[in-house]
Amino acid sequence: MPHFHKFVKPSAWRRGAVLAAALLASLGGCGRSDDSANKETERPVLIEPVHLLRQGQVRDFVAVIRPKIEADQGFRVSGKVVKRLVQAGARVKEGDVLALLDERDLRLQKEQSEAELSAAKMALAQAAGDEHRTLTLHKDGWTAQAAVDRVRAVAEEARGRVQRAERAVELSRNSLAYATLHADSDGVVMQTLIEPGQVVAAGQTAIRIARAGEFEAAVSLPEDFAASAGEGEATVTLWSKPDKHYRAKLRELSPSADATTRTFAARFTILDPDPAMSLGMSALLDITAPGSRPMARVPLSALFNQGRGPSLWTVDADSRLKLLPVEVVRYENDGAIVTGVKEGEPIVVLGAHKLEVGRKVRTMLRPT
């Protein structure tokens, strides 16, 4: 039997071998899964969250936490202080006794006024009896009209004397009660200005009390900002708690500047105080002018622009890329200040020009 290769040309044999190899390769490819061939690869990207900055028309001022109402309380009568029952910093309730005066002279005045009232009542009783008898005699024709007018005038004077004596007794009782100084509201004793043994005059400041639960931030505003201080949004931050912010509102602004510092004294009411706030604490008052927008500093490598304006790449909840249009406020050496972003939004910080919308990504947080 003749050999096969003697009847087949070498070139034809080579072409057949190539076709056979291609056929085998195509048959082997038909056994692969379409899912693995079309599976979308996740591209790794480096991201970092956005942190908003206090930019724009924002001013910071050093403030002191003060009470909204700080009343100077004193005795309403003169006298010698015999006892002071509170110290600076003490918390008091409405009606608590703060200090006492010597009551001896006031008790004597009360006893004197009561004795005068008793005498006036006796004189009124006698004058009223004379008036009644004279009127009876006049009705029967035994006395003249002049006598009636005279006893009537004496009786009216006695009645007026009784009224004056009653008022004197009431005043002496009030004076005796005023010898005890009571707190007129709940609050904190800020300062004590009297000591036992001291003689004080009526109305002299004895104890200064700040009402509880009403806090304000006292600041001094410069001339160029005083007029617009009440138009912006104000927040107060305690130096001891920098992570806590309190809303504030302008309540009072001095109509004239201080002669030395040329600043205007202002009071901002704190709308949401809590127990962590105490009188006398140092604080920082931030005032944001109306229309200020939140801004953030982003790396220059995160900006993307293909002729439609600057944008940032962000990652949605499905780990897919999307473009976020932003506005560049200004460029800096290490980045750019932009608006149109939210606090905590993840942005891609590298490779912005090699990404496409909707691409599935695997995020990696940029190390700080």
Explain how this protein is built.
The chain has helices spanning 10-29, 34-38, 104-139, 145-178, 223-226, and strands at 43-49, 52-53, 58-67, 70-73, 79-84, 91-92, 97-101, 180-182, 187-192, 199-200, 207-211, 215-221, 233-238, 241-253, 264-270, 282-288, 295-298, 303-304, 311-315, 321-325, 327-332, 335-339, 346-348, 361-365. It is an alpha+beta fold and 368 residues long. Among the domains are: 44-54 and 293-365, conserved putative lor/sdh protein from methanococcus maripaludis s2 fold, CATH 2.40.420.20; 58-67 and 211-288, Elongation Factor Tu (Ef-tu), domain 3 (Beta Barrel); 104-178, Helix Hairpins (Orthogonal Bundle), CATH 1.10.287. The strands form six sheets. It has a six-stranded antiparallel beta barrel with strand order 3-12-15-14-13-16. The chain has a four-stranded antiparallel β-sheet with strand order 2-17-22-21, with no helix packed on it. It has a four-stranded antiparallel β-sheet with strand order 4-11-9-6, with no helix packed on it. Helix 3 (104-139) packs antiparallel against helix 4. It starts with 9 loop residues before the first helix and ends with a strand. Mean pLDDT is 83; it is low at 1-13 and 16-39.
Mean pLDDT: 83
Question: What would you call the structural class?
Answer: alpha+beta
According to CATH, the fold-level topology of the domain at 58-67 and 211-288 is Elongation Factor Tu (Ef-tu), domain 3
For the biggest sheet, the summary is: 6 strands, antiparallel, barrel
Instruction: Tell me roughly what share of residues is in helical segments.
Output: 25-40%
Number of beta strands: 24
Instruction: Spell the H/E element sequence.
Output: HHEEEEEEEHHEEEEEHEEEEEEEEEEEE
Text of the CATH class of the domain at 58-67 and 211-288: Mainly Beta
Instruction: Please name the fourth-level CATH homologous superfamily of the domain at 58-67 and 211-288.
Output: Efflux pump adaptor protein, beta barrel domain
Strand fraction: 25-35%
Strand order of the largest sheet: 3-12-15-14-13-16
**Unreliable stretches, pLDDT < 50, 5 or more residues?**
1-13, 16-39
- From the N-terminal CA to the C-terminal CA, the straight-line distance is 83 Å
CATH architecture of the domain at 58-67 and 211-288: Beta Barrel
General form:
rod-shaped
Number of helices: 5
Cα radius of gyration in angstroms? 47 Å
